[in-house]
Amino acid sequence: MASYFDELHVDEDEVPTVRVERLTRETFRMLFDHDPIRYGDMVNYQSSPPASKSEIEKLITPLFDELLGEQCRICLCQYQVNDKALTMPCKHIFHEDCLKTWLEKSNFCPLCKFELKTDNKMYELYKEELKKRQARENNIAQLHDLMFS
Amino acid sequence: MNNIATQRIKREFKEVIKSEELAKCSIKVDLVGDSYTELKGEIAGPPDTPYEGGKFFLEIKVPETYPFNPPKVRFMTKIWHPNISSVTGAICLDILKDQWAAAMTLRTVLLSLQALMAAAEPDDPQDAVVAKQYKEYPEIFAKTASYWTNVYAGGPNKNTDFDSKIQRLKDMGIESDQARGALSTFNWDLERATEQLFS
């Protein structure tokens, strides 16, 4: 086991939770390196986890003016006076009940796929890793352009 | 069925009926019976594809949890396509699975299926046999898909060569759908199809 930890540069004296997190990250990295398309998909294809409750509570109520003549794109009904609605951070508005039912199942905006944070640690780690990889690739591409253009 | 699902399907009906695609005869939705839980979809084969000129019928089942879960959709018309089972009509399309979003509608589903017919994704196949042919023998694939469109979906392209091969197998007592399936699978090699059917 020692050699396994050595290989991944994990200090055995590390606090267990930190170690678990680092190992998970390393595992993701190895899976990505092994077969990025397949393992990217593997995590991606498990349907997205529900949005975090605290994130849902943070959503704000739109002004009535914003609802006038508009339609909730989940139930396809026009907004009526006294209807309760919520605004996503991406500015898309839905009925409160419609949106909450959706976010209890999936963490993204039904219209533009903007993602709210989830309570699923694996999923958050995976997304973080994906973001880092994209940033790295962009950097390399930029560097390449600088050198050869 | 709960209210939101029924209410939504009713509203969507109006949407599809009003849509310009219906006017162009490219997509259509009909009720099956009185309930809004089972519907029949219809899509025209997209132009410049082997499916052109064909009419494809779909079975659409609306779950009680719609629109929070996707409708269950299957091809009732037999079709030769890498992402659709040539046997059961089951479809491999991300928006009918994990990529579904509550703002999508029957109209977006039918249009996505039409787009899938125009641009197959052989690396994410539902029918491995078809996908293999699509990648290795694209010309045979196009001819086979066009022939299936003619036989099952009313498409215009007859193929007398394929017909006569099927007739040869029918003469040996094989049922025509089965003969067509075996010949399509073996790239219209009569010998190999016969071998497989009688093994």
TrEMBL record, chain A:
The keyword Repressor does not apply. Transmembrane segments: none annotated. Keywords: Metal-binding, Zinc, Zinc-finger. Residues 72-113 form the RING-type domain. GO terms for biological process: ubiquitin-dependent protein catabolic process. One of its GO terms (molecular function) is ubiquitin protein ligase activity. One of its GO terms (cellular component) is nucleus. It comes from the Eukaryota. InterPro entries: RING_finger_E3_ligase, Znf_RING, Znf_RING-CH, Znf_RING/FYVE/PHD. Pfam families: zf-RING_2 (PF13639). This is E3 ubiquitin-protein ligase. It comes from Sipha flava. The lineage of its organism: Eukaryota, Metazoa, Ecdysozoa, Arthropoda, Hexapoda. The gene is rnf181.
Automatic annotation (TrEMBL), chain B:
Residues 4-154 form the UBC core domain. Pfam families: UQ_con. PROSITE patterns: UBA, UBC_1, UBC_2. Keywords: ATP-binding, Nucleotide-binding, Transferase, Ubl conjugation pathway. Residues 161-199 form the UBA domain. GO terms for molecular function: ATP binding; ubiquitin conjugating enzyme activity. The keyword Nucleotide-binding applies. The active site is at C92. The keyword Glycoprotein does not apply. CDD domains: UBA_II_E2_UBCD4 (cd14391), UBCc_UBE2K (cd23800). Gene3D superfamilies: DNA helicase RuvA subunit, C-terminal domain (1.10.8.10), Ubiquitin Conjugating Enzyme (3.10.110.10). Its EC number is 2.3.2.23. It is an enzyme of class 2 (transferase). Belongs to the ubiquitin-conjugating enzyme family. PANTHER family: UBIQUITIN-CONJUGATING ENZYME E2. This is E2 ubiquitin-conjugating enzyme. It comes from Sipha flava (yellow sugarcane aphid).
